Amino acid sequence: MSIPGSAPKRFIQHRWLSAYYVAISTQRLLPTYKVLYYGFMDRDDKALYKEPLGQLFAEYKGGVSGPWEGVSGLFPDDLTQPCAVPDYHNYHLGRRENRRKSMRTACPPATKVPAPGPTHGPILGSVSAQPSREGSIQGSIQGSILGSVQGSEIEILQYLMTDFAMRYFRDAATRDVSKLVEHTEVPISESLIFFLDPELKELAVQSFLSVMMFMGDLTMKNELSEGDCIKHILLLGKEKEFLRDEIYCQIIGQTTNNPHRERCTLGWRLLNMVTGFFPCSSTLKPYASRHLRDITQDRTHPYQELARVCEDNLKRSLTHGGRRHVPSHLELDALLAGRSTRRFPIQFPGGVEFPCKIRSFSVALEIVQELCLEMAVQDPLEIQEFFIHATRGHDGMVRPIHPDEYLFDFLLDDGSIGLSFRRLVWTHPLTFPNDLYIEFHYQQVLGDYLDGKLLLPGSDSALSNQLAKLSALQHLALGLQHQPTAAELKDYLPRQEGGSTSQQLLPSCLSQLAAMASLGPRDAKRAVLDELCSLPLFGSNIFMAQKVSQRGCPSPCVVAVGQEGVLFCQPKTQVRVFAIPLADVLSLRSVRPKKDKVPVVEVKYGSPAQPKSISIHLKQAKELCHILAVIMEELVRPPINSSISNFTGFTQ
């Protein structure tokens, strides 16, 4: 409003000068204080101070254009000048840009000083890393003033939908605001929210038509169906972020004071899908949340339960970002029928299936927490080491699902996608709290051992003794009382070329079995885990690459991805040849193979100023990329714009 003001100066060299400057600077702030507090006075007090406020406006600006930051009615009409409602699209662009600038320049008090060494860019605030006391005082004063404004604003608005309409709807000044946020039988000709962008205006009109046709407030066109209307609305929300608040307001309005029960029920089901598929903006969030919360707390409201589901969906989408894909035909039909859950088997190591109830808006983290609870894993940090995997049937491609990804974004109607549960990170020690925990880890580690991914070290005689001992323990783990035959013993040996045969190991195995006859299945499984946990590549995700571009790496080459980084080892001994620590990985990508060639993973590592590159040729290129990405997110936590933080190679 162009009212002058300056922060008081403090800590001048001479105390009497300091006191003088503080007094002078505080006096200069008095006009600002008067204007600031006038807007939040009681009506009786405003009448007393209207005259000095008018003098201030006349002296400094000659009138104030309202609404001020979208808030109207704070100052007398005869002292203000009318102006248009701020464009919602540009308003959010400005807020988002200011938020980004503040995030780039802000330095929290507990931020650690970076250690000497190469950095990914210039050190932010290197010149003004130690802000002056005057700057700190000014920032604190501005922060306290802003806080008081926002606090008073909250008290006035209380986040009702009518308050949102008053601030951001285009017709708020000419129509009854309460009528703008309730059901109507008449289609809109322009967007509810004030947009300057003509495309957003037109899309808002199309969205409202789809809402009305879906709910039955408007006759459905012959070539359209309910599913077409829903997909149109969801696609608009996914592709046009600035249209999301408009869609929320349209549906909330059409479900408010709607006299038709069936139509209103359809509207609430539509709101259920919209809140789950994409979030609203931070501006609309408190208003939409208040609207849903008021209904959930009203026991007499006919849609109390649906409002509670919508409120839960909104919280989830605000946290995780919403669904990536629109629903499939089967899922859409189920949602329209009021069915939002599906029982789906999740395969544990060893082939045992664990049925889980998956909601349309369940993220992987929720199912991981549920499964970990069954295994008595309660430490949040340890839970983060487990992941749901999606496996595609026709080519066997495997992809770990990130914790905040929605499971229904991976499930297809034809059932070609399967889900499994594995541990990818092993920083926490094994604790063996219950039988399911032991069985899960036993089957996963034993599977890697039998597939030849975990090799036993040592000479021929020592190796034979280890093979015989592990074979005897596996026999006891199955709870079998009879002595194993040579054919049974063959199933206990890793699949690898060369080495001792089952017939040669049988006498030693029987001897080991006699010595450990007192062990039960639970103790035998723990003993197997104790033996295999000491192997060098234990806890790594192991691949066999046909070729690696690094000099000195053999062909083929074992590539192990784990908490130690990306390890390249000899295939027959698993002796480490080359290694890239996780902290040194800059980016990675999978390259589509040429004809009759295998895919390639390109990894850039080292210094950002002079990065190095290595190419890994293997069939499971995308699987390696995804696994390395989730491990780095867990152990290194790269920035959001890192090329390894989000892969989309496994989608519908």
Give the amount of beta strand, in percent.
Answer: 5-15%
Q: What is the oligomer described by this structure?
A: single chain
Mean pLDDT: 81
Strand order of the largest sheet: 4-3-7-5-6
- Sheet bearing the most strands, described? 5 strands, mixed
Low-confidence stretches: 62-73, 99-157, 639-652
What is the strand tally? 15
Topology:
Layout: H1 15-38, H2 43-60, E1 64-66, E2 80-82, H3 88-105, H4 133-157, H5 161-168, H6 177-180, H7 198-215, H8 226-239, H9 244-254, H10 261-277, H11 285-296, H12 304-320, H13 329-336, E3 341-347, E4 353-359, H14 364-374, H15 380-383, E5 386-392, E6 398-400, E7 417-423, H16 435-450, H17 460-477, H18 486-491, H19 502-515, H20 521-532, E8 541-545, E9 547-548, E10 557-562, E11 565-569, E12 576-580, E13 585-591, E14 600-606, E15 611-617, H21 621-635
Parallel strand pairs: 1-2, 3-7
Antiparallel strand pairs: 3-4, 5-6, 5-7, 8-10, 9-15, 10-11, 11-12, 13-14, 14-15
